[in-house]
From TrEMBL:
Full protein name: Uncharacterized protein
Protein species of origin: Modestobacter italicus (strain DSM 44449 / CECT 9708 / BC 501)
Organism phylogeny: Bacteria, Bacillati, Actinomycetota, Actinomycetes, Geodermatophilales
Domain of life where this protein originates: Bacteria
Region described as Disordered: 50-73, 87-108
Biased composition (Low complexity): 57-73
Length: 280
C-alpha cells in the first residue's frame, strides 16, 4: 500500500476531513496505524465540523417532544427544524476510541423492534410506527450502507431510503464516510475483499419527536475496520426520520446537529445520554 505525502498542517487549522485523512495516511507506518486512522477519518466524514453545531456535555437523556406552541407562532415544520438543529453534547475526538467499560447503570435499554422484511437495497424494514421503530430503521440503513463496503452500495441505500429533499448520493454523510474509507485505504469505489467493515448499533437515544410522524433518533455504533488487522472506534449518527405510508425514511432538510461519537458502554457514553440497545 502506498504512503501519501501530506502538506504540513498549521497549528490553528481546522481539522477538515481532507486534511485529517491526508495526515493520517501519511503518518501511518503500519497497516494497523492506517486503519486506526481510517476510524478517525470516518468519524469526521460522518460529522464534518463545518455547519453542524455542538454543545457542552449534558447528563439529561430525556426525550424531547417538540410540538408547535399553543399560540400558533411555531409551526410543526419549524419545530422539526429546531429539533434537528438543536446542539448535542460535544466530546473530544479521543472519545471515539476504545475505552474502559463503565460500572454505572445506564438505565433501561431501548428495545429495538425486529424487522419483518427486507426492503430496497437489501435494508431490513417493517419496523413499527413508533420512535423505537424509527431508530431501528436508521440503524438498519446505516449498517447496510457501511457494510456494503462500496460506493455503489452506499449510494443505493440512500437513493432508496431518503425522501425528495433529503440527503443525496453525493451529500449524504454515509456516502462521504465510505468515500473516505476507500480513498484512504488506496481502494477504488468498488471496495475490496481485503477490507471488511462491521458496523454494529450498540447504544442510542431519541433526541426528540414532533407528532407521530417525525423522529430524530441517534445511534452510537461500534465500527470495526479490518485490513489485515482490525481497528475499532465509536461513531454516532442522527437523522430526521419521517413516516411515509408504511415505513420510516430519512426526511428532507439538512442532517441534524453533530451527535457525540463515543465508545459504547463508557462513562462518557452514559453521561451524554446514550442507553444500551436491545433487539426485541
Amino acid at each position: 500500500m502506498r504512503r501519501r505525502r501530506a502538506n504540513r498542517i498549521p497549528a490553528d487549522a481546522r481539522w477538515s476531513l481532507p486534511r485529517l485523512v491526508a495526515l493520517l495516511v501519511a503518518a501511518a507506518g503500519t497497516v494497523l496505524l492506517l486503519i486506526a486512522g481510517l476510524v478517525i477519518a470516518v468519524t469526521h466524514a460522518l460529522h464534518p465540523s463545518e455547519g453542524r453545531a455542538a454543545s457542552r456535555p449534558t447528563t439529561d437523556p430525556a426525550v424531547t417532544t417538540a410540538a408547535p406552541d399553543p399560540v400558533g407562532t411555531t409551526s410543526a415544520r419549524e419545530a422539526e427544524e429546531l429539533l434537528a438543529a438543536r446542539p448535542m453534547p460535544a466530546v473530544p475526538l479521543s472519545a471515539s476510541r476504545p475505552g474502559h467499560v463503565s460500572e454505572r447503570d445506564p438505565g433501561p435499554p431501548i428495545v429495538l423492534p425486529p424487522a419483518t422484511e427486507v426492503g430496497p437495497a437489501g435494508v431490513p424494514t417493517g419496523f413499527p410506527h413508533t420512535p423505537e421503530g424509527a431508530m431501528a430503521q436508521l440503524a438498519a440503513i446505516d449498517q447496510t450502507a457501511m457494510q456494503s463496503g462500496s460506493m455503489n452500495g452506499a449510494r443505493a441505500v440512500i437513493s432508496a431510503w431518503a425522501v425528495p429533499g433529503g440527503p443525496s448520493t453525493t451529500s449524504w454523510s454515509g456516502v462521504q464516510a465510505m468515500r473516505t474509507v476507500l480513498s484512504a485505504a488506496g481502494l477504488s469505489g468498488g471496495g475490496s475483499p481485503e477490507l471488511a467493515i462491521v458496523f454494529t448499533p450498540l447504544m442510542g437515544q431519541i433526541k426528540g419527536v414532533v407528532g407521530p410522524d417525525f423522529v430524530v433518533p441517534c445511534v452510537d455504533f461500534e465500527l470495526d475496520l479490518t485490513l489485515n488487522q482490525t481497528a475499532r472506534g465509536g461513531i454516532a449518527d442522527c437523522q430526521r426520520m419521517v413516516w411515509r405510508t408504511d415505513r420510516w425514511l430519512i426526511g428532507a432538510g439538512a442532517e441534524p446537529a453533530v451527535p457525540p461519537s463515543v465508545w459504547p458502554g463508557t462513562d462518557l457514553a452514559i453521561e451524554v445520554g446514550y442507553r444500551d440497545l436491545r433487539h426485541g
